[in-house]
Structures are given as structure tokens and as C-alpha cells.
Q: What sequence folds into this?
């Protein structure tokens, strides 16, 4: 497309400029007498440019870019190490937390066990003491009952004797009274 | 009024003669020197502060560096590092030559076939020398792609050699023709502005405005094309196929 454009441009140029001096002499680009100076100055300027770029400009830019890259890498490295540190700290914290929880659990367990043992012991003691007291009391009651019961006969005999004395006006002898009492009590059963 | 091709005329500013050869300092030489100075000024002044966080100019300089460094890395590989300063100089020289040429009344060295051809031949010869040093006689296998039946060789080898030899021609003509055509068109349309008067002159002026924008694109694109083709040729020389 560009070659077509070139031809078109040249055509228009020919029409527009008519018999201009440039066209009469042909294209200035084809004037071979200028070639040596063009090539010489191209070589000089390009060589100077190459040396300036290779020795001065490019190393300078490269150094700045490198410094920036180093700085970025450095910061990234620092961030990574800080992150690792934070992770270690978090791990340690987790571990401490778990340990503390375990310890608390243990203490809780131990305490409840100790309390249970103490309570059981006290309970047993109290129960024992109470049983003893109950037994003693029962014994006392039994004894009192026995005593009371053993006096009942005597008292009854006394009462019967006196009642008989009042009724009959004479005191019956004790043996017959108690015998009569016994037979009556037995009859009641 | 000056013809559209007058802008390409080379005039001696300081006549110099070296051993019977005309080495005059011409307007073409002047603009080549200006390009070199502008590049150096741009790259050294913008990097003067060496900021960690770059400013606008420093970004621009770093961007050019990384653009070409990336191009060399992607197209040539790690072996291409040695040639990076050359590729970078080549790109900047063509780019600045093209861009400075767009300033009215300036001169465009890259619109001259002798300049582009000299650069292309330098690249061609340099690349061929690199290939021969690296691969010795193996370099000749470049002209017979692997996997091709032997029967095809008599046809293929001349074609491959011809295409290899036409590299500097296409490389130089592409750049030269683009620059010359663009500048000629700009001048042709500019030449119509005044003769068409205040009523009709606007049309060619508008075309010129559009073309100027287009020419900036072409100026960059052609510098890019020349450089990337150089990279590809270098890659061929280093890796053969």
C-alpha cells in the first residue's frame, strides 16, 4: 500500500511542481555524489551514539532499574520474614493457649476429684457417727423399755395387793398375788 | 514555491574533503548529529535524579530502555544481551531521525536511501558475521530448512539464499520509502493550501493535519519495524531456525 502511496505522491508531485528543479535533477536521494559524506557522517554520529549509549546512558538506567528491583526484592524479603515471624508467634500463642486450657482442665478435674473424695469421706464419717449414735440410742431405749417392763410386774403386784387389801381388808400374801397376776396376764395373752 | 522534493536536497554547510572524498558537513549530517545530541540529552538529563519513584521524563527514559530490552529478550533470548546497546542505539537513532524530521523546515536523514541502506547493510553484514562465528560451516544449513526432502533442495536453496540476500534491500527500502512518501505527501498537500485560497485551502490543510498525526504513527512504527527485524535476524543468526 505504501508503494502505491509513494507512486501516487510522486505523480501528484510531478503534476503539482511541474518542471521543478528537483525533479529535473531527479530524486535528491539518488544523487550519488552526496553518498560518501552521508555515509561518513552516519558512521560518525552512529558510532558516537553507540558509545554514549553503551558507556553512559544505558548503564545509568540499568543501575536505577536494578536498584529499584533490589529495593523491591529486599522489601518483599523483609515482608516474608516478618510474616514467618508472625506465624511463629501465632503458633506459639496457639500452643500456649492449648497448654493453658489443658492445665485448667487438669486442675478442674483434680479439684473436683479431691472435693468428691473429701465429701465422700465426710459423708462416711457422719454416717458412721450417726449409725453409732442411733445404735446407742436404740440400746438405751431397749434398756429403758426392759427396765420399765420389769418394774411393771412389781408395780402391778403392788397395785393388786393394795387394791385387794382395800377390798378385802386384809393384805394377801405376795406370792398368791403375783401368781394370780401371771395367770391373768397369760389369759389375756 | 519549493517543490515537494526540495526538502530531500542535501546541501553542504561546511565543505570538507578527506583524501579526495567529499565528506562535507551537510544538512543531513547536521540532523544526524542533532538526533544523537537529542537522544543523549534526553536519556542523561531525565535520569539525572535517579529517583526510586520516577518522574515523567525518567519514566519515559526507563520505558524506552525496557521496551527495547523486552524486545531483545523476547526475540533473541538471553544471548541477545550483548547486542542490546546496538539495538537500542539503532531504535533511538531511527526514531529520533524520523520524529525530528516531522518538524517543519527540518531534514529527515532516514528519508535517504543511502542512510537506510547503510544501516541495513551494517545489520546484514554484522548478523552474518555473528552467525558464521557462532556456527562456522553449520551456518550454511540455514539455507536448507530441516525436514525438507532432498529432492526439493535444488529449488529451495536458491530461494532461501535469495530471500536472505534481499533482507537488507527490503529493510532499507521499507524505511526510506515510508519516510519519503509521507514527507512528500505532506508537502504536496501543503502546496495546495495557498493556491486554493481562503475558501478551498481548508481541505488540503485538514488533510495535512490528519497526515501529520498519521506520520507520527509511521515514524514510530517504522523505527519499531526496523528494530524488530534486526532482532529477528539476530535470532536467526544465533539460533539458526
A:
Amino acid at each position: 500500500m505504501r508503494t502505491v502511496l509513494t507512486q501516487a505522491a510522486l505523480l501528484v508531485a510531478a503534476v503539482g511542481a511541474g518542471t521543478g528543479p528537483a525533479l529535473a535533477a531527479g530524486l535528491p536521494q539518488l544523487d550519488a555524489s552526496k553518498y560518501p559524506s552521508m555515509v561518513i557522517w552516519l558512521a560518525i554520529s552512529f558510532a558516537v551514539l553507540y558509545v554514549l549509549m553503551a558507556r553512559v546512558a544505558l548503564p545509568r538506567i540499568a543501575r536505577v532499574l536494578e536498584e529499584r528491583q533490589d529495593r523491591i526484592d529486599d522489601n518483599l524479603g523483609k515482608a516474608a520474614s516478618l510474616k514467618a515471624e508472625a506465624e511463629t508467634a501465632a503458633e506459639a500463642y496457639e500452643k500456649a493457649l492449648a497448654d493453658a486450657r489443658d492445665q485448667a482442665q487438669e486442675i478442674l478435674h483434680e479439684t473436683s476429684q479431691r472435693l468428691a473424695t473429701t465429701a465422700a469421706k465426710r459423708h462416711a464419717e457422719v454416717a458412721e457417727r450417726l449409725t453409732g449414735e442411733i445404735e446407742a440410742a436404740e440400746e438405751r431405749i431397749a434398756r429403758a423399755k426392759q427396765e420399765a417392763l420389769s418394774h411393771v410386774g412389781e408395780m402391778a403386784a403392788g397395785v393388786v395387793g393394795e387394791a385387794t387389801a382395800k377390798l378385802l381388808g386384809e393384805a394377801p400374801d405376795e406370792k398368791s398375788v403375783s401368781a394370780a397376776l401371771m395367770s391373768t396376764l397369760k389369759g389375756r395373752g | 514555491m519549493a517543490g515537494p522534493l526540495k526538502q530531500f536536497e542535501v546541501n553542504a554547510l561546511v565543505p570538507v574533503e578527506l583524501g579526495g572524498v567529499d565528506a562535507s558537513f551537510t544538512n543531513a549530517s547536521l540532523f544526524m548529529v542533532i538526533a544523537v545530541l537529542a537522544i543523549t540529552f534526553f536519556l542523561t538529563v531525565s535520569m539525572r535524579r535517579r529517583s526510586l519513584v520516577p518522574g515523567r521524563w525518567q519514566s519515559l527514559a526507563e520505558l524506552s530502555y525496557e521496551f527495547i530490552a523486552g524486545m531483545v529478550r523476547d526475540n533473541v533470548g538471553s544471548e541477545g544481551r550483548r547486542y542490546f546497546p546496538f539495538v537500542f542505539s539503532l531504535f533511538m537513532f531511527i526514531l529520533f531521525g524520523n520524529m525530528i524530521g516531522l518538524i517543519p523546515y527540518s531534514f529527515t536523514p532516514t528519508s535517504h536511501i543511502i542512510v537506510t541502506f547503510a544501516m541495513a547493510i551494517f545489520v546484514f553484514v554484522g548478523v552474518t558475521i555473528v552467525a558464521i562465528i557462532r556456527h562456522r560451516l553449520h551456518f550454511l544449513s540455514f539455507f536448507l530448512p530441516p525436514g525438507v526432502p532432498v529432492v526439493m533442495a535444488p529449488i529451495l536453496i536458491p530461494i532461501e539464499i535469495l530471500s536472505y540476500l534481499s533482507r537488507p534491500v527490503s529493510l532499507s527500502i521499507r524505511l526510506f520509502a515510508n519516510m519519503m512518501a509521507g514527507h512528500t505527501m505532506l508537502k504536496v498537500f501543503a502546496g495546495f493550501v495557498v493556491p486554493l485560497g481562503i475558501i478551498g485551502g481548508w481541505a488540503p490543510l485538514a488533510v495535512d493535519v490528519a497526515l501529520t498525526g498519521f506520520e507520527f504513527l509511521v515514524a514510530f512504527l517504522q523505527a519499531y519495524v526496523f528494530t524488530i527485524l534486526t532482532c529477528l535476524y539476530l535470532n536467526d543468526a544465533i539460533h539458526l531456525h
About this structure: Chain B is about 70% helix and 5% strand. The beta strands of chain B are 12-14, 17-18, 21-22, 25-26. Chain B has a mean pLDDT of 90.
